Amino acid sequence: MPGAGTDSTRPWLEGGPVVVLVEPQLGENIGSAVRAMGNFGLSRLRLVNPREGWPNPKAVTFASGADRILENAEVFPDLRAALADLNFVAAATARERGMQKTVLGADAVATEAVARIAGGENVGLVFGRERTGLYTEEVSLADVILTLPVNPAFASLNLGMAVAVVAYEWFKLASGGALPFQQPDRYPIADKADLLAFFDHVEKELDEALFFRSPEKKPVTIRNIRNIFHRVGLTRQDIATLHGMVAALVEGRRTREERTAARLSGKPKEKPVDEAAGDGEG
């Protein structure tokens, strides 16, 4: 089922490098990898001899709505066949393989992929088995080794996670790092007249509340207060809210003062002591 972040009104992004999964063991992992592909604009999936066969219902469940990638997936009997029409291939591995081959991080592979795809080449990203990864002879078929800066003592990534990291670097570069949305600018920035009126308001009420206890320090304190609000970049809505806050605080203080005065004025007076009381005859 589609997740909370899906939006069927927007165009589905396609293209990018081909993702090749070599002998994936579980449909769940294929689905997770496909979900990551959909997240970051990769649409071409190739499966090499999937262990549980194909199609796989569990892959559909874990793809979380990226069904079109699964529907268009291609299945190959071996890696050589899956790579036949590709011009540049990066093989993902966490282990040093003892071969003279350039080793690149995901960001550098993304840079290479963007340039090559722009030039009309087909680029492939190859990921191995969940338990054993790619065999050395399979890595030898690639142009470069792709690896990630992970904890050397624990470099085992889930298949979906590995695809997600590399796909993210690709999409960040291919999209220019554009975020899908920004906070809408609903309210215009306050002009100086609005700001100065607020300063007059808050400084008057602070004065009445005896906030400025030292006449000598009052000018410096006022400048500091004004600078706090200058740094914020207040909108007109912000100014209106601040006016309301100050007014509420003032009203609350006056209400408390009135209640206190009323309580004190209504307090019963103490009766005068009758010095003769109790002195009469019993």
TrEMBL record:
Is Methyltransferase one of the keywords UniProt gives this record? yes
Q: Which residues form the tRNA/rRNA methyltransferase SpoU type domain?
A: 18-168
Compartments where located = Cytoplasm
Span list, region Disordered: 257-282
**What are the Basic and acidic residues biased-composition ranges?**
257-274
Tell me which GO cellular component terms the UniProt record holds.
Answer: cytosol
Q: According to the UniProt record, what class of enzyme is this?
A: transferase
Q: Does the keyword Cytoplasm apply?
A: yes
- A biological-process GO annotation: tRNA nucleoside ribose methylation
Q: State the EC number(s).
A: 2.1.1.200
Q: Which SUPFAM superfamilies does this one have?
A: alpha/beta knot
Q: Which GO terms describe its molecular function?
A: RNA binding; tRNA (cytidine(32)-2'-O)-methyltransferase activity; tRNA (cytidine(32)/uridine(32)-2'-O)-methyltransferase activity
InterPro entries linked? Alpha/beta_knot_MTases (IPR029028), RNA_MeTrfase_TrmJ/LasT (IPR004384), SpoU_MeTrfase (IPR001537), tRNA_m1G_MTases_N (IPR029026)
Quote the catalytic activity from the record: uridine(32) in tRNA + S-adenosyl-L-methionine = 2'-O-methyluridine(32) in tRNA + S-adenosyl-L-homocysteine + H(+); cytidine(32) in tRNA + S-adenosyl-L-methionine = 2'-O-methylcytidine(32) in tRNA + S-adenosyl-L-homocysteine + H(+)
**What are the entry keywords?**
Cytoplasm, Methyltransferase, S-adenosyl-L-methionine, Transferase, tRNA processing
Q: How does it assemble?
A: Homodimer.
- What is the annotated role of this protein in its UniProt record? Catalyzes the formation of 2'O-methylated cytidine (Cm32) or 2'O-methylated uridine (Um32) at position 32 in tRNA.
Give the family from UniProt: Belongs to the class IV-like SAM-binding methyltransferase superfamily. RNA methyltransferase TrmH family.
Under the heading PANTHER family, the entry gives: TRNA/RRNA METHYLTRANSFERASE, TRNA_RRNA METHYLTRANSFERASE SPOU TYPE DOMAIN-CONTAINING PROTEIN
Q: What protein does this entry describe?
A: tRNA (cytidine/uridine-2'-O-)-methyltransferase TrmJ
